[in-house]
Amino acid sequence: MKLSFLTILLFTGILHQGLAQKMIKGTVTDPTDTPLPGASVLIQGTTTGTLTDFDGIFEIKAKEGAIIEISYVGFETANFAVTKEDEYTIQLNEEIDQLDQVIVVGYGTQRKAILTSSVSSVDGDDLAAEPVLNPLQALQGNAAGVQITSSDAPGQAPNVIIRGLGTIQGGREPLYVVDGILTNNINNINSSDIERIDVLKDAASLAIYGNRGANGVIMVTTKKGRSGKMKINFDSFTGFRDIVTRVEMADASSFVTFSNEARRRDLRRDGDPNNDNDTTGFLLANQQYNTNWLDEIIRQGLITNHNLSLSGGTDNIRSFFSMGFNKEEGILLGNDFDRLTLRSNTDYRISDSFTFSNNVSVQLANATPKSFNAFTNAYKQAPIIPVRDENGNFGTSKGLNNVSNPVKDLFFQDEDQKFFKIQGTFKLDYQILESLTATSRFSIENEQARFYQFVDILGLFLADDPTLTELDFFREDEDRPQTILRVEQSNIYRWFWDNYITFEKRFAEIHGIKATLGITAEEGKREFLVGTRVNVPSDRNLRFNLDTGDADDRQTSGGSFNDGLGKLFSYIARINYDYKDKYLLNGSYRRDGSSNFTKGKRFGDFFALSAGWVVSEESFMENSIFDVLKFRASYGELGNQNVPQNILNVTTGDGGFYPFGPDGELQQGITITGTIDEELTWETTNEIDFGVEYSVFNRRLTGEMDYYKRTNTNAILQIQLPDVFGFDPFNSHVGEVVNEGFEAVINWSDAIGELRYTLSSNFTYNQNELTKVTNPFFNEQDGGSIDNGQFTKRVTVGRPLGSFFLYDVIGIDDRGELVYDDVNNNGIVDEGDRKYFGSYIPKIVIGSSLSVDYKNFDFSIETLANLGNEVYNGKKAQRFGNENIEQQVFNRRWTSGRPSNTDPIASNDVPLSSTYFLESGDFFRINNITLGYTIPEDASGPFSKIRVYGTARNPIIFQKFSGFTPELVGDPLGTAGIELNAYPSLRSFYVGLNVSF
């Protein structure tokens, strides 16, 4: 009886469920009531779904209360609940981010549809979709015209160049604007906190930033609170990292053979062809040690990252709060970094006319730096040297080569760095009239840093030569300190005050005007203080305390200066006009006054004019294939005030006295070795831009193309007067640098049943050249030193900035020696034989991505290609004698029994800077692969979303360069494009979790 009753209950329940489901019918249309065929219809929390037919009609079985989700490419997703009705009509709105996206520009916003400037935008959700510690890493390869060179060192930000390199003496980094704060970097911002990033690239968008806009501007908008119940998000990922490309070094046996051959070659060169009985300087085979130095200095890097955010509010108060923590254990032993970030964004609606908002962010970070020179020393150190000998002492190569033990160097490098940064923006908006709003915004930024460096002088002395004792240490100087502690405290503060009014109105429904007029002011200053103590105890708890040890007043210093910013006062104006969203005009103007320059040179005027024509709005385009077709053009003038200032050098003689007159009597005086160009001011850049934007196939295919020419008309370069003047080189406005290029972006989005996908690609071509110099005393600066007396670069007219200037290797002679092109035909190798070769600046950068969503799965892959540049293998070229060599150099070396036409004979000579060490910088890399799964809502319990994912970042690279990485950051006349003391590229593997409730 009991079993029968349960059976009846079960049957009744099944019958009830079956009866509760019913067939419903619906029609899906766009805002013009045009049916949408192929729209996806899905019952939320299930895998049950269907597609609309050619007339936009669907039928599906569902029970009352079920939520039906309708989605279609190019339109916003819509949901409705099943009621007692059997038929439904659903109208989908076009996606705002594809049709009428709002772009953040300087001191306001503008609709993408009527924008007449070149701006690349990346949505915050796309940035947060992959695990990165700096949002610029996610931007790499996703914005045309933006070259981002990554550094995988813990805590270090990528290097960013927008539309080429316009200066070699001035600053090259773009300006960052975070919620109105003008700053130098965004290292303190979590990717999860970003709503969107807009990259302003052309003069039309940049002129509003005057003499700070020449290098581009990256606008960062952080997330805001929204009305409604509290929403909580938690993101977390963890993973490990290792080197992508390892360089195989010669083992002990190969090293001994190579070194002995080099010794024989040196003896023959010195005129001793008979050296068979001379074993001086030769190494014995069967060495006791065979050290792999790279393995000894690295470890598996570990990363953890956690972010928690809360968002919610009412119609009058909306808040967003987030907290993030990340920790990096770098691959280099002891190289660690951790960061805690806090953010609070709150908006208040005081009345119908007044609104107030404040954004405050805090960063606390700690770093234990280690010198990247360890990678070069690990490359060069002989494998026959042990890390530690049988007595536990650090191995030393004294008497063999001048390479330090990199493990010892890392052990004795004892530094701590602590950072505190706070940013705050306080903004008041008053709506004077319906079309007129006044804005006052005050922002502050304060950065504090403390650097601790402890040097164990005695320990280093004993480690460098285990045969020495403490008595030997004090015998040289009995007052010699055993330890030194150096502590530096730095404080940088800046404030910004913007006041402007915005007028926005549409007349007769066809004339649209938006105008901004205002004034801005800012000031920045840096203060620092350095103190040292000697004979500080080695105990870890005491060594970073200035209260211990003995005074060392000679090393104490401090000061205050303007940090390259000083005071800036500006007037701004901008007006946008459109006629029927069809004919577009834009003008912007800024007058800047900067305290960085001399009187008469402090004020400058910067402007831009742009126009656009939305051809697709014309009547004759009604039946064309284009959903959107827009042409735009712009011209403007920008400035770069981040330039070096001339300093007059005054030198006094011994006691300030010099021999003077016929009798050579001592007279008091000074020597002036420098001069100042009083005309020195900001660098000025003029730019033209022609662009086209298009959308076809119901906005499935969208894209943009831009041609630009950017000219720095007064680039600062060095002048060298004749020796008779007795002046050192000094800076002056004497150069013209041109960057000319083409950009293209193309996106395709579509759906096949429940599978949605998006293909995106962007292409950048840029040609950089110093086109002319206006002073005959222009100093062709040399650079690219590789710390062995050799230089690799020179600045000259007709070449890209940072061009390599090298001897050209044209072959190998019958003795195995490199043969250089005798350019000046004088029969010897001298400076006149150097030639110009490529630059480290790439000509072509291509970024591509594919994202796929199928049911609860998501997949994405991103790639990056870098073409048309050269890199120099500096660590391979930095030889003095008996350094290790790469295994392939050993395998391919010239010998009398096996002549080679690629690699020379073994040698201990300091090599000339030549094309032998110059290699292609081309590479193709998979930037990111991510596979995620979102748990169905009916199985996620109290959570609205649970997503788990796995990511491989930079897992594979195809490169021509034989070194660790072809991405080499640095100054144009420094280490940019030279692998020397460089951090290798890393691949990372993560697992992550996204939770919302």
Shape: globular
Number of strands: 49
**Overall pLDDT level:** 89
Q: What's the helix count?
A: 13
Break the fold down into its secondary structure elements and pairings.
Elements: H1 2-20, E1 21-29, E2 40-43, E3 49-51, E4 57-63, E5 67-71, E6 78-81, E7 87-91, H2 96-99, E8 102-105, E9 108-111, E10 119-123, H3 124-128, H4 135-139, E11 146-149, E12 159-162, E13 175-178, E14 181-183, E15 194-200, H5 203-206, E16 217-222, E17 228-243, H6 252-269, H7 293-297, E18 301-313, E19 317-329, E20 336-349, E21 354-368, H8 373-380, H9 406-412, E22 414-433, E23 436-456, H10 457-464, H11 470-476, E24 483-507, E25 511-534, E26 550-551, E27 557-579, E28 583-594, E29 603-614, E30 626-640, E31 650-660, E32 665-672, E33 683-696, E34 701-719, E35 730-752, E36 755-773, E37 782-783, E38 793-794, E39 803-807, E40 809-812, E41 818-820, E42 834-839, E43 844-854, E44 857-867, E45 870-872, H12 874-877, H13 887-892, E46 918-920, E47 923-934, E48 945-959, E49 986-996
Parallel strand pairs: 1-7, 13-16
Antiparallel strand pairs: 1-4, 2-3, 2-5, 5-6, 8-9, 10-15, 11-12, 13-14, 15-16, 17-18, 17-49, 18-19, 19-20, 20-21, 21-22, 22-23, 23-24, 24-25, 25-26, 25-27, 27-28, 28-29, 29-30, 30-33, 31-32, 33-34, 34-35, 35-36, 36-43, 37-38, 39-42, 40-41, 43-44, 44-47, 45-46, 47-48, 48-49
Helix pairs in contact: 8-9
